[in-house]
Design brief:
CATH architecture: Alpha Horseshoe
Mean pLDDT: 78
Distance between the termini: 48 Å
Number of domains: 1
CATH topology: Serine Threonine Protein Phosphatase 5, Tetratricopeptide repeat
Low-confidence stretches: 191-196, 212-226
Number of helices: 11
Structural class: mainly alpha
CATH class: Mainly Alpha
Radius of gyration: 19 Å
Number of strands: 2
Helix content: 55-70%
C-alpha cells in the first residue's frame, strides 16, 4: 500500500500509513522492509532529518548484532529483483554512504566528510571517494580533494565493474579539471578555521554518531568486529 501511495505522489500519507500500521507486521524481515520503504519516502519528500535518524538506527542495529542472523557475517537481500548475499562490511558501508549523502543534502559538508571517511575505512569505494572529494571542494580544501581524486583515477578504489568504473573515473577527472581550472593548477589554498562554531558543531555530530557505536555493552551483546576496527580510528580522527 505504501509503495502504491508513493507512486501516486502521496508521500506524507504513505509515511503515516507505515507508522500507524507497522505494528501489524511484527516480523524482523517485515520491519526491515518497512524501514527501507520509509528511507525511500523520506528521501523523496526531502525529510532529511528523519532519514538521518533512521539511518543511524539501522547502523545501531548492525552494531548490536541485530541486523544479521546470529553468528552470521552475511545475510540475504534483494538488489534490482535479484537475491544476493550482503556482508556486514558491505551493508555498513552502504548505510554510511547514504548517511553521508543525507548530510550533504543538508549542506553539512564537514559531517558528510567524516561519515564518508568512516565508510572508506570499512570498504573503500570509488564513488564514495568522489563524493568525499566534493565535500572537500565545498569546504575549499582543494589540495585534499585533488589527492582523493588522483587515487580514484589511478585505480586505487573498487569501482563496481568496468562500465560503472569508467563512469566514476570520468567523474573524477572532470572534478579534478574543475579544481585545477579554479586554482590555476596550483592546488589551491586550504580553507582556514575562522568558523569555530561550525567546527564545534562537527565535533558534536561526531560525538553523537560515535556514542551510538561505542555505548557500554555487555558480553552478551553481539557487537560485530567491524565496529571494533573503526571505533579507535574514529576517536583518533576526532582528536585531530
Amino acid at each position: 500500500m505504501a509503495v502504491v501511495m508513493k507512486q501516486r505522489g502521496y508521500l506524507s500519507d504513505a509515511v503515516d500509513a507505515i507508522r500507524s500500521l507497522r505494528h501489524l507486521c511484527p516480523g524482523k524481515h517485515s520491519q526491515d522492509s518497512l524501514d527501507n520503504i520509509l528511507l525511500d519516502l523520506y528521501k523523496a519528500s526531502g525529510r532529511t532529518k528523519e532519514e538521518i535518524e533512521l539511518l543511524k538506527h539501522k547502523l545501531r542495529k548492525i552494531y548490536l548484532g541485530e541486523a544479521f542472523p546470529r553468528g552470521k557475517a552475511t545475510k540475504r537481500a534483494r538488489s534490482h529483483g535479484r537475491k544476493i548475499h550482503v556482508s556486514v562490511q558491505q551493508e555498513t558501508s552502504r548505510i554510511l554512504g547514504n548517511l553521508a549523502w543525507a548530510y550533504m543534502q543538508q549542506r553539512n559538508y564537514m559531517a558528510a566528510e567524516a561519515v564518508y571517511r568512516k565508510a572508506q575505512m570499512v570498504e573503500p569505494d570509488a564513488n564514495k571517494a568522489c563524493n568525499l572529494a566534493l565535500c572537500l571542494v565545498e569546504q575549499r580544501r582543494l589540495a585534499d580533494a585533488e589527492l582523493v581524486l588522483a587515487d580514484v583515477i589511478a585505480g586505487g578504489y573498487h569501482a563496481g565493474g568496468r562500465e560503472h568504473g569508467g563512469k566514476i573515473v570520468k567523474k573524477a577527472e572532470e572534478l579534478l579539471e574543475r579544481i585545477r581550472a579554479e586554482t590555476g593548477g596550483g592546488g589551491g589554498e586550504e580553507a582556514g578555521s575562522e568558523d569555530g562554531a561550525e567546527a564545534d558543531e562537527m565535533v558534536e555530530l561526531l560525538d553523537e554518531v560515535v556514542r551510538q557505536w561505542t555505548a557500554p555493552y555487555r558480553r552478551s551483546d553481539r557487537r560485530l568486529p567491524v565496529f571494533e576496527e573503526i571505533t579507535p580510528l574514529c576517536r583518533q580522527q576526532m582528536a585531530c
